[in-house]
User: Fold these one by one.
Assistant:
Number 1:
Amino acid sequence: MQNKEALTEENKTKMNLDKCKIRFKSHYLAAFFLIALATSVFYLTGENSAISEEQDSQKQNARNEEEPKARNDSVLSCNLFSGRWVFDNLSYPLYKEGECSFMISDYACEKNGRTDLKYQNWKWQPRDCDLPRFNGTAFLEKIRGKKLLFVGDSLNKNQFVSLLCLIESSLHQSSPKEVIREDNLFIFQATEYNATIGFYWSPLLVESNCDDPYTHRIKDRIIRITAIEKHAKHWTDADILIFNSFMWWLEPTMTILWGSFGSNDAIYKRVEMKLRRYEMTLNTWSNWLEININRTRTKIFFMSLSPYHFKGESWDDPQHCYNESEPIWKENYWGIGTDTEMMHAAESALKNLERRGLKIEYLNITHLSDYRKDAHPSIYRRYSQPPNEEQLATNPKGYSDCVHWCLPGVPDSWNEILYSYIINSL
Ligand SMILES: *[C@@H]1O[C@H](CO)[C@@H](O)[C@H](O)[C@H]1NC(C)=O
Ligand SMILES: *[C@@H]1O[C@H](CO)[C@@H](O)[C@H](O)[C@H]1NC(C)=O
Ligand SMILES: *[C@@H]1O[C@H](CO)[C@@H](O)[C@H](O)[C@H]1NC(C)=O
Ligand SMILES: *[C@@H]1O[C@H](CO)[C@@H](O)[C@H](O)[C@H]1NC(C)=O
Ligand SMILES: *[C@@H]1O[C@H](CO)[C@@H](O)[C@H](O)[C@H]1NC(C)=O
Ligand SMILES: *[C@@H]1O[C@H](CO)[C@@H](O)[C@H](O)[C@H]1NC(C)=O
Ligand SMILES: *[C@@H]1O[C@H](CO)[C@@H](O)[C@H](O)[C@H]1NC(C)=O
């Protein structure tokens, strides 16, 4: 219990920081509005085609039951990231919110009072193939004796908790369902499989003044752009590493520190250069991986940007995740929370690493998640200082979390994709 509560601390800060950023962005509202106008003409004909009707999906579902595709290498040659959301309340959700011992209130939207629960019933359907059905037992067998570690920010923690919920029904009833924290590391031991599933908090990958998993409500982010060892030494013994790091870089200005925190000859330089500082960090990260990763042992994944839905310039009214109960139905929708320049920086860092002999799987979940404006906690989140009813009634959007995802929900689909890689390629 204690550990679980501890696990939730970080998010309150994250939300506030994110909100600052969104406010800053509102200066560009006019520009986005123009772009939205131009593009909406384009999309008019595409309405509704990203999502199929229920009947269709139930037929689809019936077909899947007849011929389960548990292990099929062709899944990996298929583009799992292009497809559509299909309503399927027979198979989804894959677990119940209230039955997951690992659930934390940050993501427990139903417990927090959300009554429209349709967000739990969508299945991600790739266009050219079917995702294998998530089988917790098969997954745990696959990682027997191994260590799987998520590394990054609270979106990665969202996915970590989702994965624990997905496997829980495959654990012995008597085995402890506990996450133990040690500094930045949150660890769950699946003892009967001798497997470890963990999450390591380092939202900027390199050292920064936001490295405390609880206390990182810091206006001026300071990063040591070439210093990663302090965190990375905790990653070397993992067999599967799943990184993410986008959100925290979107800050318009940050301070770069040359030297170490508190030393006399340290140089602090406040910079904009959003893209360059991200590239420099990815470079530090890549160099570390190239030297320290055992290519035979460790399989590495990198999650693409998880989109947020604070501003709706590019979909129609209402312009916010608050009170949204349906996905976006415009085919090829891209949200304004999707910084393609930053994504390209990450993609080219991964390509570079591949040229240097280190293959990293890029799980390109941005676009598929972009459709899901309905799936954020909004006001059904955890509050560090809960607003009173009047505050909430007058300004629900101001109190909404449009960054993280309710569970069961979108991160389950990310994990189904991760599952298909792990089950087919390890
Ligand atoms: C794998 O899937 C493809 C198409 O999805 C199918 O044609 C093929 O027969 C499958 N192979 C196996 C071994 O199930
Ligand atoms: C699934 O959805 C359909 C249509 O909305 C509804 O008729 C049915 O009762 C639902 N089934 C379950 C198990 O919720
Ligand atoms: C899940 O995987 C286990 C171990 O591979 C297997 O025994 C079991 O039949 C699978 N369950 C389903 C529903 O496919
Ligand atoms: C558990 O896994 C570790 C590697 O992670 C291995 O060193 C150890 O021998 C395993 N223990 C058992 C009992 O299999
Ligand atoms: C890399 O990992 C493999 C498989 O676990 C192991 O056999 C090998 O000794 C490791 N190499 C180094 C240099 O540690
Ligand atoms: C929420 O959305 C529904 C329609 O989907 C609408 O009737 C209702 O007024 C909205 N509530 C608020 C508080 O915006
Ligand atoms: C990621 O997916 C998007 C949308 O499907 C696509 O446009 C983009 O090219 C993909 N990126 C990579 C590196 O595959």
Number 2:
Amino acid sequence: MNRFKIAAIITALFAFAVLAACTSPEETVAPAPAPDIEATVEARVQEAMADSGPETSRLELVRERGVLVCAGNDTLAGFGFLDADGNIRGFDVDLCRAVAAAVLGDPDALELRPTTAAERGPVMQSGEIDMMSRNTTWTSSRDVQWGNFAQTMFYDGQGFMAPTSMGVSTIMELQDASICVQQGTTTELNLQDFSNQNGMNFAITTFPDNVATETAYSGGQCDAMTTDRSGLVSTRQGLASPDDHIILPGTISEEPLGPVVPSGDDQWYDIVKMVMAILIYAEAYGVTSDDVPTSVTGNTPVDRLLGLEGSFGQEDLGLDVTVAQTVIKSVGNYGEIYERHLAPLGIAREGSRNALWSAAPCTDCPKGGQIYAAPLR
Ligand SMILES: N[C@@H](CCC(=O)N[C@@H](CS)C(=O)NCC(=O)O)C(=O)O
């Protein structure tokens, strides 16, 4: 690309020089001072090179920096929240930690940037962060405008929560209700669509972040609140009396939540997808953080995963052959991450879309879930 740009500039300037040299004095209407062509060419070439700069890959950038910058959430229990020691922890955060382990050998070589819903597009587009892992729905326009969505880490859908005292048991009973919702979310857009399509006549009030939405709802400013069902579970458990609130059955949208990387770096995009595949296949093969074999087991898929036999493309991406060992020791497999952060909230996995699709070869498969990744081979 740089070479083409520089060649084009040189060609244009050379043509200009030839033209200037071939023009007779008689043809010149108003003689201009002769340009120093050589100096101009040199200056333009320098400018073109400085413009595009040496192309540093995201992997090189992260390794030079020594830290992975990951946009996340710090207000959503289970997914990304501040623990008692002031650290941001959660299901989404563990994916950032897994990528830090894969590329830097250390899950803690991580800078987490708490980001509100509305800030997500701008931070992704600026290129200032390496990845975002934050209860974020993969949509077609975000895929075009924000960056590349790797794949789905958690399948969700939008739901509603209302005080039990309201006496409603279905979403359709919320007709004419006032609803609190967060700005800059798919939630806000889906809510309006649903209201229009079903004549719900919702009175919608929007808030800039989750805390403000939750405070307004619990303070009685709205009849109900809406967000991803997982977000409702998380929010409900933080309310003064969770039992006084009901999450209504049903969903009004598809919310596939997953990580995003900046556009334009295939290697980096593939690395994040590969790390997710490592987490998923480690669970499928029964490899857990407390028992990561470091010598050949005789089970070919396990040995390949752990870099003990053959390859699944990890070195081609600039990763260590034993990258999966580091990742699994650091954060565990997908199932361990789920158990650590989402099971305590009561977000059941068994029989849900967030179960594994299969652990082939198997006799009891497919297991019915949708958690799946490109086979590691
Ligand atoms: N998945 C939806 C909603 C994501 C979202 O931001 N949800 C809210 C409510 S659960 C949230 O996490 N807010 C946290 C905050 O902004 O502090 C999306 O991607 O737009």
Number 3:
Amino acid sequence: MNNTLLPETLQALELKVARETGLDFSSSRNRDLEARNALAAKEFGFSDPETFARWVVSSLPAKRHEQWVETLTVGETYFRREAEVFETLEKQVIPALAANNTASRRLKIWCAGCSTGEEAYSLAISLARTKVDLKDWDVTILGTDMNTASLKKAEVGRYGLWAFRNTPSWFRDHYFMKLSNNVWEIRPELHRAVTFLPLNLIDLNHTQRFQRPDAPLLADFDLILCRNVLMYFAPDTASGVLQALKASLCKTGLLFVSASEFSLKGLDEFVSAPLGDTLAFRKSTSPAAAPKPVSAPAFVPKVRHQQKPRKASVLRRPLARPPKPVPKLDEVRQLADTGRWPEALNLCLRVLKERELDPSAHYLLAVLHIEMGHLKEAVLALQRALYLDPAHLLAHFSLGHLLQSQGFAKAAKKSFENALNVDRGAAAQVLPELDGLTVGQFRELVRQTLQEGDSL
Ligand SMILES: C[S@@+](CC[C@H](N)C(=O)[O-])C[C@H]1O[C@@H](n2cnc3c(N)ncnc32)[C@H](O)[C@@H]1O
């Protein structure tokens, strides 16, 4: 199918998307919009993307709006994404906020753009792990998103192994119940701690109320996390949302965005606060009890390349695009990013028919199998990737995790050792496929994982 739209259709679609979702698909993102539109056309039963796009622009019925929005969003998320943020929350921020609020015994937290819930539950777990006793406190954790299909998954609270790719095994074992080899359910007390509600951030105004009578007011938040959301918005739209978020914070409130969003337009209206290994944004300088930085700033805000490399995030962005994207694998990734695993799997199998010697296609297939709980197939796909590219670090590492999770400790150990034996140059050498991690940092991570396995 030809994805290309006529220039005037593309422009009208781009405008509609920006107006109704805030998402920016201008210039270099045009191709992505066309690819998403083509996939959506299929889902809606249209054979021609151009006809579909015109229909969307002129007469998309309100009852199908949600379904259309779902085709546009990137829902990629996982537990304790940017682990240093959660460590800082546990050690510094939550204790300081609690000290602030001893009189009211109230704590209000909002995860804006929570996708399928991993971030909001990670927050609930951080509250459970902090040394502060919050028993009998009125604690609110609100998770909102405009993608209602994602929110439904968040409500269910069941996750595959892939969602735990950035966490040690104790995190999963302690706070989740194992339902099967690849399905883990959040513990009931943590599930109860979080409320999920639909909200489009571009409609946000701080006097807004949700329809549900028991829903919290969008005001007076002690803490807001809005991470990996506004990076997809046009600068002015992001800035408008940031203003509204600021108005929703209480006086001592703090905002967290992701490290790749520190240069967002609109953050200069906040006071930046280096905390531990990360950076938060305060509503104002005045309050005495706001958390104090414990160490010198590790990096200067707004300069992306000075961020500290993140040790535990070796599998972050597993679906990261190669420098020169291959259109078909990219389509698979887009489907996977929006959680449409069966479709992504089918497409990936089709791609493999043409590219059976491509290790990254086999690796991607393994990722999809893992997500869908087909663990045997995932092992086979990883083995094929490794046959074609014995130096595929991610494949060795994922295979190790997969085997470990299935109780094959010896074989897992072998895979981790294989990952260590791959010669990828000096310790300082940067590994682009591992999100900029250096060879030395990757080796350290594998060694830690091996030690964890030995101590089980
Ligand atoms: C990449 S996910 C980030 C999830 C999580 N915050 C994290 O950092 O892992 C981005 C989320 O933002 C949501 N989103 C995008 N535009 C939005 C909008 N206008 N209003 C509300 N949510 C939005 C998407 O639906 C998606 O779930």
Number 4:
Amino acid sequence: MVLNSTNASEFTNMTGPNALKMDVNIVMLGTDNVGKSALTVRFLTRRFIGEYGDIESIYSHNVIVDGREIAFGIWDSPYSQERLGGSVTQEKQMQWADGFVLVYSICDRASFNAVARLIQHVKATKDYAGGEKVPIVIVGNKRDLHHRRTVTSEEGRLLALTTDCQFYEVSAAENYHGVLMVFHGLVDRIREARSAVKKPAGIKGIVKSMSAVFTRKRTDSL
Ligand SMILES: Nc1nc2c(ncn2[C@@H]2O[C@H](COP(=O)(O)OP(=O)(O)OP(=O)(O)O)[C@@H](O)[C@H]2O)c(=O)[nH]1
Ligand SMILES: [Mg+2]
């Protein structure tokens, strides 16, 4: 439960031994009872403890993903608090976050509808460097309760396709691996978004591209 308010949008220590270290701030969003805390705790501890209470937490967690050390910050707040906290907290979360996990329960259609609305809200609020796509992973949780399912997998997949988000159906209660995929998938998206922001390189990049064209150099290494 450590509040890390540093700007996490850059790689840290580029020249030192931790040159591969990367900071990633993630906000968990979704209506109440969908399993935001269960997913977070599962990722952090590999455990499912059943009841999670109403504590707002920002967790720090360092792990190796694809050979690179990732310093995760994960902000998990109860939905009730989100509503009470109002726009100030939301605004803070939006600024702090590099990526979002939007959670619904496959047994709760209202929670699915809420995720559809949340995607629009996040995209409208988080102006990711002038229109770059915001890293979002949609999670349909409680897959183990398939007998009570009211949202099909296809609906989840379609929502992700039409909004350009990633999609996973998981069970925080029964499966650690699926939860791991969610967070690793989001890291990939954040990495992609950052490299997309870096590529154009302003006027320097344009001059470089133009001189490459006029001197007939190979451009595929730019
Ligand atoms: N069967 C099943 N139950 C789950 C799963 N994930 C969470 N739960 C249960 O669903 C309830 C709500 O989980 P939480 O993680 O507290 O939900 P939350 O989204 O954090 O809810 P708020 O903090 O109130 O917004 C708890 O009783 C969990 O044990 C799951 O994958 N399967
Ligand atoms: Mg919670």
